[in-house]
């Protein structure tokens, strides 16, 4: 069995190699890059060679120029003259949560680098790119193209939600993946079902959670049910993995060719110094984050993402007096509640009007959604010092990448609520 598995992994990696994607080569390059004495010098040496263009079309050749380059919005990137060159043969489409899809073109080196970073992170969890993956994803995939792709990648996609939940989980158990990869909500749903049926997925080495915010209490729960470590991945279709959680729970920056900044509005700005097919300089991802430094040499940079939130527009909640607080307070409140009650559920808070929020939980908490709502009200009062009203709502439909907080009020930069406009 183990021999077949090793062979299958080797086959996947050989297929990558046949496509000109040297995963092992690039993983070693990642290791070397992180071992460099001066990161600034390293980045500058690449900038000099590649000279990516900023939002105004000017070449960026030094670290100082990069620091003062204008911010590149997604919209500007879509409409920019940054057309791919001929060697860019790989194409990926970002789903575009804002509605507009973005085209990303990569040459072999660029995709190879991304896979090298992925392999580098996976090794940290005791797996490799090419190991057998059970992917929990939003939609079941059909068609020859995705079947070929899944074969090459040695993975199978499971849709652990809705009508076919039991059947999908049975197939997942029989597939015996080396690791699971997927959205937090689908992993939670899968864990809930496994616990209820007294089943388990045997032989898992790790679980990688992507794309959605996950609470520490939920991560612990997943780790218990799946009986393996759970690692959080932060990435984007434009860059693949940007940060990856180490064994000590930090989200380290892992791609040595990316420079991540928390911009003036705390927005995530990413620069790829190595990419020549398309220029991405101070590219605005649409997420909110704060960075800090830790003394943890285990993985990538000592720089970590200490706070991460979804869409920029969903960052702040407003009180009846039009004062604002960080929406992450809701996540902290629910995390505390879950720890205290030993209860696990998904939730979404929606701002209905200033000072008033709607709460949806799934599955229904043991003590009822009302008890969670009351608890959140008290927690916000305690931590932020504001009196808010949390009402219960029904009908949580989570598909794909979602946020735990949805702001339906238009807000200006000064933070004043402009009145409810509906979603
Ligand atoms: Zn760490």
From TrEMBL:
Transmembrane segments: none annotated. It comes from the Bacteria. InterPro entries: ANL_N_sf, CapK_Type1_Caps_Biosynth. This is CoF synthetase. Gene3D superfamilies: N-terminal domain of ligase-like.
């Amino acid at each position: 069995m183990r021999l077949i598995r090793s062979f299958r992994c080797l086959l996947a990696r050989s297929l990558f190699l046949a496509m000109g994607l040297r995963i092992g080569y690039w993983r070693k390059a990642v290791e070397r890059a992180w071992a460099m004495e001066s990161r600034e010098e390293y980045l500058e040496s690449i900038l000099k060679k590649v000279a990516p263009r900023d939002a105004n079309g000017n070449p960026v050749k030094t670290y100082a120029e990069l620091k003062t380059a204008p911010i590149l919005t997604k919209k500007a990137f879509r409409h920019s003259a940054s057309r791919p060159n001929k060697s860019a043969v790989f194409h990926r489409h970002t789903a575009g949560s804002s509605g507009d899809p973005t085209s990303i073109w990569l040459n072999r080196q660029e995709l190879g680098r991304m896979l090298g970073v992925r392999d580098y992170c996976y090794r940290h969890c005791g797996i490799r790119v090419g190991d057998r993956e059970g992917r929990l994803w939003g939609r079941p995939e059909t068609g020859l193209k995705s079947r070929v792709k899944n074969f090459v990648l040695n993975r199978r996609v499971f849709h652990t939600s809705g009508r076919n939940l039991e059947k999908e989980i049975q197939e997942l158990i029989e597939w015996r993946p080396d690791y699971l990869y997927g959205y937090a909500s689908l992993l939670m749903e899968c864990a809930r079902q496994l616990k209820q049926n007294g089943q388990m997925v045997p032989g898992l080495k790790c679980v990688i959670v992507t794309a959605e915010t996950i609470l520490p209490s939920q991560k612990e729960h997943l780790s218990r049910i799946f009986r393996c470590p759970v690692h959080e991945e932060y990435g984007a279709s434009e860059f693949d993995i940007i940060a990856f959680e180490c064994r000590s729970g930090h989200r380290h920056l892992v791609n040595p060719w990316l420079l991540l900044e928390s911009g003036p509005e705390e927005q995530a700005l990413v620069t790829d110094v190595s990419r020549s097919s398309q220029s991405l300089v101070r590219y605005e991802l649409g997420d909110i984050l704060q960075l800090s430094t830790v003394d943890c040499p285990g993985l990538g940079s000592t720089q970590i993402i200490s706070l991460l939130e979804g869409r920029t527009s969903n960052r702040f909640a407003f009180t009846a007096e039009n004062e604002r607080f960080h929406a992450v307070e809701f996540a902290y409140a629910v995390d505390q509640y879950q720890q205290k009650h030993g209860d696990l559920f998904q939730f979404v808070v929606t701002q209905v009007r200033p000072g008033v929020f709607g709460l949806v939980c799934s599955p229904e908490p043991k003590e009822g959604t009302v008890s969670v709502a009351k608890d959140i009200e008290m927690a916000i009062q305690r931590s932020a010092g504001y009196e808010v009203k949390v009402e219960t709502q029904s009908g949580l439909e989570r598909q794909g990448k979602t946020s735990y907080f949805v702001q339906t009020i238009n807000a200006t930069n000064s933070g004043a609520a402009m009145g409810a406009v509906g979603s």
